[in-house]
Structures are given as C-alpha cells and as structure tokens.
Amino acid sequence: MTCFHCGLPVLEPGRHRAFLLGAERELCCAGCEAVASTIAAGGFERYYESRTRAPSPQPRQAEIPQIAEPKSGEASLILERITCGACLWLIEQVLRRLSGVTSAHVNFTTQRAQVAWDPSRTSLAKVIAAVRGVGYDACPYEPRRHEERERRERRAELWRLFVAAFGAMQVMMYAFPAYVGEVSLSDMQLMRWAGLVITLPVLAFACRPFFAGARRELANGRLGMDTPIALGLAGGFAASAWATLTATGEVYFDSISMLAFLLLAARFAEGTLRRRAARALDPLLSGVSQEDIPVGKILTVAPGQRFPADGVVESGRSSADESLLTGESRPVPKGAGDRVVGGSVNLEQPLAMRVTHAGADTQAAAIARLAERAAATRPRLVEAADRVARVLTPVVIAGAALAWLYSGNPWVAVAVLVVTCPCALALAAPVVLTRAAGQLLAGGALLTRSRALEALASVTDVVIDKTGTLTEGRLALKRTHLLGKLGERECLALAASLEASSRHPIARAFPGIDTVPVEARHAVGEGIEARVDGRLVRIGSQDFCGALCSSRRDDSQCSVFLADESGWLAAFELEDQLRLDAKRVIEEMAQAGLAVHLASGDTPEAAGAVAARLGVARWQGGMTPQAKHDYVARLQAGGSVVAMIGDGVNDAPVLARADVSFAMGAGADAAQLKADVVLTGNRLDAILGSFSLSKKAMRVVRQNLGWALAYNAVALPLAAAGWIGPWEAALFMGASSAAVLLNASRPLAGASSWKASSFSSLSRSSSYS
After folding, report:
1. Residue 669 annotated as catalytic
2. Looking at residue 244, what is its pLDDT?
3. pTM of the prediction?
C-alpha cells in the first residue's frame, strides 16, 4: 500500500488518513496528512484527479512549499499531542515568534489555534512545520476530521484508563498480603517481582502521554504540568525497582499504579468536560458545506436539510430555522427573492436557491472565525493566572527536591510533585469562557474577543449611536424640499445616482429611478460626492454640502442635503422607526445603574427628539467620528468603563476606543471588525443578557482561580511534611481539578432567556449620520 499523496509505502495502515475525492485515503505520515487536508480545505482536490500518478518520493521538506494556501492568510488549526495548558502556551509562543505571523491565539478548551499571517512573508506550510518542529502536530480544521480525531483520542484514553485500572487492581492484590499478615521472604520477593512486571506496562503504555509531554517540555526548555507527574512516576518506580532487585527497603508499586489510574481518570474527566464545552461553537463550523460550490449554481434544498451556502431563493415557498446563527427560535418565511443563510435549516417545502457565497465566504463561516478568535483570546485576569501556573511548576519541582533531601524519603517528593500539579489553575478559566461564548451566541450575541467579558462585568457607562442602532435603519423619504432650479424628479435621480454605491440605510431611502453611473467618493461620516455631467454634486450633511456652494441653510427638519457648485438643490426629510425593544432596553440599563448616553451624527434636533422619546438625559447630535471618539475618551479619563453600541463605518474608531463595544449584525464590516460583540440578530435585548452573563462568568472564573491558588498553598506544605502520601496526593489533585470543572460547568444565568430576531446580513456600508 502506497501513500495517496506522495507515493511512499504506508507502514502503519489506518493511522494517517484524509477524506479526498469522496473517500478516506491512506497516507504515510502526519506531514502528508496535513498537506492533503490543506489541499482539500482549500478546494483543490482536483489536483489528485489531474495528475497521472503519485509524485516520486521527495524529501519531506521539498513537499512543504507545495501546500495550497488559503486566500485569506488565516486558518484555524487542529492541534494534536496536547496534554496540558503548557503545551498550548508553548505552541502559541512559537507561532507568535515565527516571521510573518501577525497573530496567533491558542484555545485550551477547543485545542485549536487561530493563526493569521502575511502571505508575502510566510505560508501555512511553514506555520504547520513550526508546530511540528516542537514535537506537536497541526492540520487545518475540518469538522469531519475533528470528529474523527476526538473519537480516536477518546478510544485511546479509555484503553489507557483500562490498562491502568486493571494493573492497579492486580498490583493491589499482590500487595495486600504484606499489609495484613506475615509473609515469608521468598513469597514477599515473588510478589515484588509480580508487582514490577504488572506496573511496567502501566507506565510504558497507560502513562505514555505524561512521559511524552515531559520529554517535549524538556526538549523545548519549558516546564509544564507533565514534567512533575513524569518525575514522580519515574522516581517512584525506579526506587521500587531498585528495592526489588536488591531485596531491601520498601516497594510502592501499588501506589504507583493507583496514582497512574487516578491521574488518568482525572485527565479523562477533564477532557470530557472540555469537549462538551467546545461543542457550543462547533455547529457553526460544521453547519456549512466545505465543498467548493460555484457561485451562481442553482441548488434544490429539501425540507429538513441545511442550506449548504448563502444564496437567494429562486422558486418555492417555505420557512427556515436560523437559530444556529441568530438565536431566533421562530421560523423565518422564505420566498422568491429572499436571502437564505448557509447553515440554517429548510423546514417545510423544497426550495430552489442560487448560490451567492460558499465555503469560507459564507456568513456562518465569518461568524465562526470571529467566534474562534474569541475562544482563543483570554482576559487579563486569565493571562495572569497562566503566568502563575508557569512559575508554579519549577517551584513545585524545587520544593519536591528539598522535601526529599530533608526527609530522606523519596515518596514525600513524589507526593509533592503530584499534589501540587497546577492542573486546576490551568482549567480555572478556559471552560467557563468557552461556555459563556456559546451561550452568548445562542442568544444572538457573537463574542469576538473573550477579553470583553472582563470589561462587560464592570461597565459603568453605555454610549449608543442612533441611526441603525436605536432605530430600525430602514429610512424612508418623507418629504422633498426643493431649494434650487431642478425639479423633484431630477433631484431624486441625482440623489439615487450618488447613493447607488452606498450600503448605508440612507441610500435605501432613494428610489433608483433615472440613475446614471458615477464615480462616487465617500467622505466618511459626512456624505458622498461625484461629478455628474461635468459638475461636482454632493449629498450628505448640511456642512458637507454647504462647503461646496459656500453658503449655509438653517433647516432643522432635514438631515440630508443635495447641492452642486452653483448652490443648494434640495433637502430631504427622512423618517426612521425606533426599534421595538429600544425603550425597554434603555430603561433596564438605567435601572441597573448604568449611565446611558446617546451620541449621534444626525442633527441635534433629530437626536434630541429620539433622546426625549427614550428618556435619555445625556445626548449629543451632529457628532463627527472624531467627536464620538473624543466623547468616549473623556468619559474614560473620568474613570468610567465605557461600552459603545454602533453600526456604521463612522462608528469603527469609537468602537475600537471603548472598553467594550457592540456592533449590529446588519452594520458595516468595519464596525464588526472593531467590535467585541456582534449582535447577529440585531436585537438590543441581547446586550442586557451579555451584561448579566459576563458578571456570572467572571465570578465563576474568580472562584475557580481563588480555589486553585488556595488549594496549592495548602497542599504543598502538607505534602512536604509527609502528611499526604502519593496516591492520596493523586486523589486530592483529581478532586481539585474536578471541583474546578464542576464549578465551571454550572449554568451561567442571563443567556438562556433572551432570543434574537431574524438574521441580517453582515454588509458593507458608508455612513454619515
């Protein structure tokens, strides 16, 4: 059997595989598996159809540059051979120091890395090679492969746990007579040899992850959680083996086997809870087809099936369940011309859809990338705990050595190494943060940075934009005021021509009649200008248009003006409806003690009218993007922790400035890229849920960190004093990790009671109000 990718012999059939051309293919090594998976993920499987034969075997380094690169310069990688948080920290540091990598974040809960790089300086192949260079494996995330990897890992964990349990029971059976009665020296020596023989496979097979992890840590000059455990197990076995060979002293094969079983049981329970928490985000990644579906292709989606891509309904009537993306549990009607979102479910009748975006370009994929980025970042409190955990390991090893020297008993050192393993400290936050992100997403709030949870829990002031945030953003033309020589139809045609290139809500207020193609220039936060029939025309704010015709009008009723070089042409009176939940959300924020501010680029009269209707005492209109930025900066200078809620391009600077920021799901891409939370369902009440959930999540994180630190502070001196034996140490260590995980698995209040409305597209827009 030869490798499907490179043609080398497959020495271990079944170990390395990839799903290629509709079937599982055998590969010779992890390198070919990574390359083949990358080719498949990039949509280049036809390479294997076009070649006439597998390439001649070449050195592994020669294959790496042939990897098909993702267009975005960004990838989510599955990490393998991970045993503890120190492994992930090491991988993150290696990736961040790799030339050309712009960002790298590793998530302990999902055991995936989110990596972005400059394609002109490095490549995905080099990123994977860097991970492999420190003893781990990596490959592009693909749901089917991820599920297979989890099944394989779980099967291996169960086998190791079984071997350790069986060995512990057998060794305890041989050790029991020595504890309860007189045994002859010859029988005692026989039992010692039996214990050694049975304990050997427990260490060699069941405990292999501990020793492999310790070897990688030492090879990379970093001490993690596996090193103290491996030292304890190896030291205890070596001392007992020497006692058996020399027929002197005590043996503790029973304690070693029981210790191995308890450690593996704790790690198995930890992995089970970690995988359960990680599944909260996986449906997003698996809901969209990974196939390379051509844009424009017509597909028929049967009832009960997921839409494999984003598209537009061509024919048929049905409804869709979009709760995966928006948190909205009610079906959304779909008919000809309606947009459908990849990953949502067709409920009733067959629909014919035309594909507009597929694979990595779908909205679900964009949301999944943001969610993965959030899961891979950590609040400052958690980063501080990680630093403590890294420092604790060498302290533990030094303490164990001193305890051995002082007591003369190697088992005291083993107990110190095991009981103070900083597993609980490493587990204290990741599971909580991943579950919080999953619950927020289920309620219609996509967390894009986990650090936002820390800021959300301490917000004092909320600054809200008006247009498209407090209002529906569906502006309609109420009245046209003619100010120049042109008629109403001509003014509307000019306005529609200029606004045709914009996706801002204002642009939709002008009918597309008699439009002419123009090369429009957008002035962010002010308006649009273009040359039409040889003259310069502007549409936008009063100041923006007034600068063109060197005059000013005093018109408080209108927010959009039209002018050319000869003077004013028209003023447009627009109207926009408040969101149904806006008043209630503002009132509940105020009741919670939050200071609410309205900051709008619209006219002061329009902003004041909305503020009066909503009961907002602190408001300001006619604000430029810089004015909004400065407004938030002044609040922060006064000691306030500010949350900003906006939707347009002009909100991007202030969203980046705020301590924590929200962007509407129908807002501009620039705003969403700067925001910490994206409201996928465009419902403001999702913000209330995020405030309450963040407080609960950070409280649980602090409880876990406090418990883990207190446990280690108490356990270390007790073990050093000889009051805790090796297997008792394993029990206490496992109980500590279990306590942290159970506390992290408690329901997080505040996210399950609020649901978002129908999904709106993540669209680009220009903004000047």
Report:
1. no
2. 87
3. 0.56
